[in-house]
Please model this.
Amino acid sequence: MSRRLWRFLLLAACAVPFQAGAAGEWVPVVEERFDTTASLSRWEVIQGEWSLTTDGLRRHGRDAQAVIQLRQPVAAGAVRVEFEAKSDEPGDLSLILGTERGTLANALFCGFGSRGNTASVLSVSKQELASAKDGVLVPGHWHRLAVTREGGRATLEVDGRRILDAPEPAAGLAGAQIAFYFWNSGVVRSVRVLQRAPAATASRQDASDGAGWAVTPVVLYVSPRGNDAWSGGHADPMPDVSDGPLATIEAARDRLRAIKKERGLAGGATVWLRGGVYALGAPLVFKSEDSGAVYYADGSLRRGVDRWGLPHTTLFYLDAPVRYAAYPGEVPVISGGRRLSGWRTETVNGRTAWVTELPDVKAGDWEFRQLFVNNQRRVRPRLPKTGFYWMEDVPGLSLPALWGASSQDAFICREGDVQAWRNLADAEVVALHYWIEERFPLAAFDAATRRVELGRISRAPLSDDFHDRFAKYHVDNVFEALTEPGEWYLDRPAGVLYYLPLPGEHPERTVVVAPRLLQLVVMDGDPEGGSFVDNVHFEGIEFRNTDWRHPGEDGTPAPRKAAHPLGSEPRGRYAAAGQAANDVSGIVSLYGARGCVLEDCRIANGGWYGVDLGPGCVENRIVGCELTDLGAGGVRINGADISDPAVLRTGGNRITDNHIHACGRVFHSAVGVLSMLADRNVISHNHIHDLYYTGISVGWRWGYAESLVRDNIVEKNHIHDIGQGWLSDMGGIYTLGVQPGTVLRGNVIHDIVKSSYGGWAIYLDEGSSHIIVENNICYRASENLFNLHYGRENIVRNNIFALGGDGLVSYARIEENMGFTLERNILATAGKPLFLAAFGPGARRIVSDLNVFWDVSGQEPIADYTGFYRPSGDTLGLAVWRALGHDRHSVVADPKFRDLAAFDFALAPDSPALALGFRPIDTSDVGPRPRTGKKEEP
Model:
């Protein structure tokens, strides 16, 4: 079935209610049940305190009214709202159909009060229209209420019986701001909003009143052979060159704005991009006026299937987006770079170099820090060529140093490591320590004292992690080190670029591109102003050739963040972020975007994160994309904190079936997928590898403080070759803080290599609590397979942990909390302890049972090594371990893997793990799933 036919059928289906109802019947546009797993993403708290409990959405406190409201109004027309509610004590509960956001002015109240003789009242601006005082409502009891506003009248039904019927005021209501109002306590359990289905129509273009919907999308074409003066209505130029495609994406965007203003885009639009390079002079910016069609303006629910036939839920949108899509069989490239030419050859440092003059660089109008040759990254010359130098001393810093002893801006180098090189201020000192990289401009060097002055201050003390020595580093961008093929150097003051070609490269057959931009696409909504970028899709497009800067450097953009300072640490004069390169924005940046999609795209040759989902980003999808050769990570997600406006919260995004690799090329501490202050995200079926810090990170609250982070799902990802010995304290999957409902399941994680400590497959860091870790296969990490720093009431079940470098399971901090339950897992080791750190009375607390233990060396497994990070410690055998109350029903036995040496963990039918209730782990669908479904033809 073609996409166009599918859209036609879907539009037709949405024009009638469920169960194939006819036009004119009630169509459900919102169906929501509040419970402990629900969220308030569609609702905004206007006043008062609310929480989600087991029985519903509960109002707290007694001293003021409370109002919670849908973020967007329901379109004009007949409206019916059905809800289940109760008032636990004397007080009022009302449904408000209002016209002014966040106020009670000009509102139609339909609800009940439970004071005295129970009553039901309809009123407008406190003018009573009708009332019933017949005791139909009882405090503390659930009631089903239905409010209908239609044809100039308003009715109220209670438990299936019509109680009131009254005329609506002559002024009427043009739209409906739906809200619930409580005085004192009350609970709402479910809400259902319905509207009359519009009359059937096949071609109506004027959708301004929400009653009719176009079924034929607008179609435009863009081509490198186009002309922005043409109509854009043809895929190729006309033979007489009188018309044809547009030349730029900006022109197509602006043309759609004009069409939308004139007659709307209810059927959506498709902009077909012909193959070729679209070099941008500035990022493409999309505002709310560039949004696709929104069938229900209140954020209603549509259920359907994704491209693999699996069910999913999409909020807000009919399948009528504004699409910017690759023309079938062609590859459009959106580039932030400029192709360089005019090469000559010179001898540089004894090597043959290509050389070209760049007058705008010499004039100070352009500078670049990356270079791409035939779509491959080339490197700046560094010293030493491999490995690192070591700082001899750091003035004012005593060893060993703790994390807080930061803000150094100088060090003493060893003899000969640093010299008075050409363009010294353009060289960079790159220090790798702890879990971050620090990039310092080299400000000055005193050869007599060997003192190196740095142009930024350190985020962490310039020591080698927690060791009793100073930090390691290398120096990047040194002209005198330009000696190896594939290296390049920009002499910025002279405006001259040098490149040492690889064997077989020739100037006339080689594409050399230098970046001019940091970002390529910016979705620029205004959530606090009530406008969003809705339903804009990018499909099959390549995004290439962007540069890097420290966030905020020279006025360059940093991530858009919410008001709360914990949303993202400002870099300021620091040489690094505190963790995960969290302050680095995205090449594609979204702010206040809903229902937007990147599908089958490729983001490569960039300097920052590939995609940044900022505050107010809800229900977006990044699916089937490749994100590679990036300065930072693949995807960054971050929204509002508790104290920020609710409209800035971020959640419900899906990062699925992507290939994220070769990242962290500049900001080595960047993460494959970084989800910070966000909830309900699904990060699944991705292949993530070749990074220097962490594969997937979820959470952004250290310790047990209250957080909005919850209900995130991390499943079926293949994560490997992480760390690579560059940094410490990382995990294949890493979590922070209390986050109930978060689940890590079905992932395959291996080859996690630390620098000096902390190379874990699954790492639950500070305060990680109420997290389920299940059905994962973890093997070959340089430290342990599972580590809890500290936290409470986590569940670790039905996992396979095999062949950890130092051990299998560790727990760092002693607390009174029960850290985790470890049940029905298989722990296979090769002479290393099953558990690291002391467990038992007065030590770390866990519940462990029904596990299978096996030491492939044939010896009895070591249950507990009490030394942990210390070089020596006591070991406990299983008998002592069991005497402490652990693993009384666990067994020591060969789990009978199919081939452990080949890391094939399929179990034989007679595996002892199965007898203990272990469920076999299916890995057949781990990583990106096969792509199916036919793309729409133009």
The chain has a mean pLDDT of 84. The CA atoms of residues 28 and 561 lie 35 Å apart.
